[in-house]
Input
Amino acid sequence: GENVEQHPSTLSVQEGDSAVIKCTYSDSASNYFPWYKQELGKGPQLIIDIRSNVGEKKDQRIAVTLNKTAKHFSLHITETQPEDSAVYFCAASTPPGTYKYIFGTGTRLKVLA
Amino acid sequence: DAGITQSPRHKVTETGTPVTLRCHQTENHRYMYWYRQDPGHGLRLIHYSYGVKDTDKGEVSDGYSVSRSKTEDFLLTLESATSSQTSVYFCAISESSGSFEQFFGPGTRLTVL
Output
């Protein structure tokens, strides 16, 4: 079946440094890739997304890049702050164009003050 | 925040008993989803609904059933709970206007003893 692989599973960075989380997907026809942030005891919340017709998208300190040829996409967080500490999930829409996702297994990000 | 509530928020039950979890939305969104979240597995889709009385299976549907008799409510039933169904369950919603974003509820922690 379709799957999304996410790495690393845990990531520790110093405050102010950058963090990068990577995902690969298996269905070359997937066309929508969201990133969710989940804080302890809460539901996931969308932080940024990208569609397959775009290679990069930025929103303040957060950016997502997509390489359709290699079937991978990445989340970049610059100037990390303690409040960025959370679990981050990537996802890919599948079947393409549907309203269903396959999620990655998550990355626990710790920003050290 | 999207108007999504889940009830109960916590439940402890015994093996073999039936359990029903409720998801209620006030956004009038067409699509509703049930996920389970387990360590090392991320979020996995159990069932989803694309309209009143229209439902379909996700990747981990065995042992679960759903019903949607009204736009605002989506019920998840464990006919005979097993210890392997101990998990955190999340409901999500999305609209059908071209945005693929899913909004998540606060989750229900279910423990099956």
In short: The two ends of chain B are 33 Å apart (CA to CA). Chain B touches chain A through 26 residues (CB under 8 Å).
